[in-house]
Amino acid sequence: MSSNEPSRRPRRPVSATKKGTRARFPTRPATMSSPSALFEELLESSLNSDAPPKKISISSYKKTSSYTTAGAEYPFHPGNPYVPPPMPPQIPDVFRSYPVLRDTYQTKSQKDQDQTVSEVLPHITKRGNALPALKREKHIAFLESGLDEEQLPDYMVSLDASRPWIVYWCLTGLSLLGVDISRYRNKVISTFTPIQNATGGFGGGHGQMSHLAGTYAAVLSLASVGGSALSLVNRISMLKWLHSIKNPNGSFKVCIGGETDVRGIYCALTVISLLRLPTDNGLLKKTTEYLISCQTYEGGFAATPGGNEAHGGYTFCALAALAILYPPEKLKELIDMDALLRWMSARQYGPEGGLSGRTNKLVDGCYSTWIGGCWPLVEAALGCETGSLWNREGLVRYIMAATQNDKGGLRDKPSKNSDFYHTNYVLLGLSGTQHRHWYEADEETKEWEEGLPPMAPFGWKVEETTPGVTGWETWPDSRWGDSKTDRVEAAHPVFNIKHEMVEEARNWAESFL
Amino acid sequence: MYQERPEWEDVIPLPQDDGALPLAQIAYTDEYAEAMSYLRALMAKDEHSERALEITEHIIEMNPAHYTVWLYRANIVFALGKDLRKEVEWLNEKALRHEKNYQIWHHRQLIIDKLDDSTGEADFIAKMFQKDAKNYHVWSYRQWLVKRFGLWEKGELEYVEYLLEQDVRNNSAWSHRFFLVCGNGQELTEEIVQRELGYVSDNIFLAPQNPSPWNYIRGILQRAKLPMSRIEKTCTYYAPLDNPEKIKSSHALDILAEIYSTIPEQKDLAIQSLDLLSSTYDPIRTNYWNYRKTQIQKAAA
Q1: Which of A116, A132, A186, A379 could be bridged to A384 by S-S, CB 3.0 to 4.6 A?
Q2: What would the CATH number be for the domain defined by A136-512?
Q3: Which residue of B has its CA nearest to A187?
Q4: B219: nearest CB among A170, A297, A308
Q5: Which residue positions in chain B have pLDDT lower than 70?
Q6: Is B242 buried (19+), middle (13-18) or exposed (0-12) by CB count in 10 A?
Q7: Residue A15 confidence (pLDDT)
């Protein structure tokens, strides 16, 4: 099914419906009378001696106002009939018990897996079946501590070469939670100014060599705060540096003298595409071939074509890299989509509901992005209009019940601590469960052509999943009444920042072309 | 402290510039901040010296993820013609302490490549695998070793079998086996396919619900351009469709569905397999099994 075919369902483009965070929360319609207005009406009628006092009984009050539906806001108003709290839906068996088929032969992998299930089960089945709400304020406080604290503690020196990552993780997590991160714009520009090297690219900190990971995180952070912060990047030296780390086989070294794997290609393509860099002189020569050759016999992608194992992180990098070069429907011509689909689908385990990164490895919150984030790309590639190919409810259950730290932040699994990395990638995964992405090509967003910047990733559209629309259920919407407080913002499926900031980056690039 | 030592007197340390409004600034210890300042000064001159080597070791001890320091160190080691064996020994201890680190393994690769000798590497890798037999960096490094030193037939297959005896669910070891059997451009002869079929079915027998050998044999058959029906009997043994109570493996059901979907008159069996997966044997993947069903129905229509 082609992406140009008109949809049978009405679609709400993100830009039209998601202006800011306030619109997402239910507010009282302006026409609804307030308690004080009613009181004035009563007073007026009693003062008017000509007319008999107007009887306003509780029942007529209920009829003339909509307070019964707004009961959540005024729970103690005497006019409210008693409405018992809704019963949480029964947890489906698949999330309550061990799988039907379990081998008796024990090895370390099996013991680790059983241990994880016994660790996760009490979390996902407790509290009378209800799932905990998103601890929004606590997660916001946790992520803000990464940016606003005067200084991070000295044991975090192990992240001294990854400071652009800390900024990207915290900014993206905050923006998904509905925080306006444009207030960090000046600080982001100031932070990345000394980290940009005159020879092109960004390092992990001042005086460090330019590295594709740091450069990726810096460019995404600058794009996320908007307002032309991307203009900080020296595009000319960036392009020179990218050429200097390009390998003849199509891949990129992560830095001069550094290692090579598909992470490098994904980071480089993100930078090239967002900054609208020209790709002549063979900048992307053989890159497609390299990416394709990383698909393993299992169906997922490995770090390199050299015999590695299929892995969630590298699969996202390879797939997103291909989605920067090509519109999604082209992907099925390039790779073995049946094998990829089988492997991705097998990454979701019951009863945990969470996603794992490799065959016979454990679920981990961060694969909510690395595997979860592959799904919109694959679903669009296959033209899935009727429903999701994976179990969104399972992942929501795992995220809400097992990855939230009571003290703030999100984590790999209950026995682990929360950190900025997991907080961001679990939130991106949660966002994925609450949205549906599709692709709409325009005259610019076509397949990459030698010499031109890749434009394909700018064709993605998104809408919130709607309660009651079969096939795309997300637990808080369709199975649990009104749970707007669990909603997070839409992320872009290729770049993993807030969706609308990618549009802004596109507009920014138009301004200098 | 470097500032108190005479051999560092000539170096003017370069303090770190974090900009006026830094985000995510780290409260360095004085020791780290000072060492980094002296390192920046040496790197600015690209000095290759004993003292430069010493300071890289000091910083790596405090922060082993500092890629810039590692690459600088590699340059110094080669420029000074240091004993590469000693460098490897020093690395061993680092690798055992920091298991998830890209830089250590990249550095090791540079050193061993220069040394042009892989003696002792297998023993050290075995130590790493005792800690975590699925360590991705270590496996990548081992595959590089096999290619760089042509170790295809030098006990690799036996080592994989040893690891799979320890844990038949070690998918990294299965992946390495695939690399050994197919990664050198070898032709998959009938003899090799037979050997692999035998090895796989022995291991499936131990734990029929282990996905690794099923994925592996599917990959071998695909690479050898053989039909999946080669393993139909194995599949029906672990997933007898006429007696669903006795099903032991969802992976066997999955492959049966694939085999039957290609034969028009057995389409119903394919649908039955997928229904069993969806309802009972792998229900968390119901949407995927249903998708497979619609694909079969589409092909038939």
Answers
A1: A379
A2: 1.50.10.20
A3: B21
A4: A297
A5: none
A6: exposed
A7: 42
